Amino acid sequence: MKIKELRLRFIEFYRSKGYTLYPPSSLISQEFPYTYLASLDMKYITNCLTKAERIVIVQDCFRHFDVQNVGDGIHLSLFEMGTALNKGEKLKEEIIELCHSFLHEVCKIPLNKLFFTVFGGGVIFDKKLSTDCKSIEILNKLGYSSRVIKCRGATNFFGGTSSHNIYAGPRIEIYYDTSQKCASCSGVGHAGCKRFVEIATIPFLSYIKQVNGEHIELLPYGPSINASAIGFERLAMISMQASDIYNIDFFNDCKKLIQIKGKLKNNDKVIAKIIDHVRAACFLIADGAKPSNKGRGNVFRKLIRAIYRNYHTLGFCNSDLLRKLIQKTIIEFSPFYGILDSKEDEIFAILEREKARYGENI
User: Fold this and answer.
1) In this structure, are strands 122-124 and 127-129 parallel, antiparallel, or unpaired?
2) Which pLDDT value is given to residue 361?
């Protein structure tokens, strides 16, 4: 399935189970003034959950810390995340079972291709927490007993490494076995492994992490927020049996535009970076982001400069091609992300203005 179909199937599946669809929030989050929305805006989520017990959201996310990883086969700076959320311990089993049903029954992923890591207990800041036995019990019941791995410490604790005030709690991470040979493969749950690719996470947010200078503590929060979040691009990679995340439908369509210029051969990583960065810039500008020398504006400026550095690697910087990539992004995503409508000229103008400003340096 292509991204567009996966998004539709995800929304239809959860709506059929009684989940209310809410629109995505802005990438410009007030919670994090120095960067952009990398996951969910929890203030927005908690507000939505006061109106409905079960909600579903498809959220565009931008992760500045992954910009440098684009080109490695599995990372993007901007990606789509389908998330279902409910509240309370009694709905924990439901959120796990529905995620299983969507992946296995809707997406047709065989059970033996999925592996799970769960919170195996440990001291998290000031609290000694026990193993998430309930999640293990539910996964065993669903037929995954031989593929459930307990991880102690912060690895499977959402918010365990953040320096911000944040909702926190144990989580399940779901990995797909690509069966690819991986020289650095060290098993399920290890960063950099290209055989076992994380495709979803299920956090149970039953704490609030408070940071006061060097002092950090976990405060109980309830009823807990249960979520299942799935990355659509990685799921499309699996569904389309693509060799990597840059060979799914949207990227392939964009590569055809660049191939016309005769620059595709032996430049796969550079091409992937250009397409990824242009798409991210389109979404950011549509949400009101402006390049500057301070805060998140500087994060955005560095992304734009990376576009032109990669253009330079190809030996050209063609404005016509840039506009075509912007147009392709808008055509592909504006039917769902209406904020992209009528933004082509603004996006092009901002990117061209940055090129003129820094042309001699990049």
Assistant:
1) antiparallel
2) 55
Torsion 329-333-335-341 (CA) sign: negative
Locate 56 and state its tokens. 């579903």
For residues 246 and 299, is the Cβ–Cβ distance under 8 A?
Answer: no
User: Using CA atoms, how far apart are residues 67 and 310, in angstroms rounded to an integer?
Assistant: 13
Q: Is residue 88 a contact partner of residue 259, using CB atoms and an 8 Å limit?
A: no
Phi, psi of 130 (to 5 degrees): -90, 165
pLDDT at 312 (0 to 100): 83
- The residue among 150, 153, 187, 145 whose CA lies nearest residue 172 is 150
Q: Output the DSSP codes for 124-157.
A: ETTEEE---HHHHHHHHHTT-GGGEEEE-GGGGE
Confidence (pLDDT) at 192: 65
Task: Yes or no: say if 243 and 254 are a contact pair by the CB < 8 Å rule.
Answer: no
| Maximum separation of any 2 CA atoms in the chain, in Å | 61
216 close to 238: Cβ distance less than 8 angstroms: no
What is the C-alpha to C-alpha distance for residues 347 and 301, in angstroms, rounded to an integer?
13
Reduced to 3 DSSP states, what percent helix, strand and coil does the chain have, rounded to the nearest 5?
45, 25, 35
- Per-residue pLDDT of 116-154, as tens digits, reads 999 999 999 888 999 999 999 999 999 999 999 999 999
Distance CA(48)–CA(300), nearest Å, equals 29
CB burial readout 1-39, b (16+ within 10 A) else e: bbbbebbebbbebbeeeebeebebbbbbbeeeeebbbeb
User: Residue 28 half-sphere exposure, CB side, CA atoms within 13 Å?
Assistant: 14
Kindly state the DSSP code that residue 241 receives in the 8-state scheme: T
Q: What is the 3-state secondary structure (H, E, C) of 53-89?
A: CEEEEEEEEECHHHHHHCCCCCCCCEEEEEEEEEECH
Predicted TM-score (pTM) of the model is: 0.92
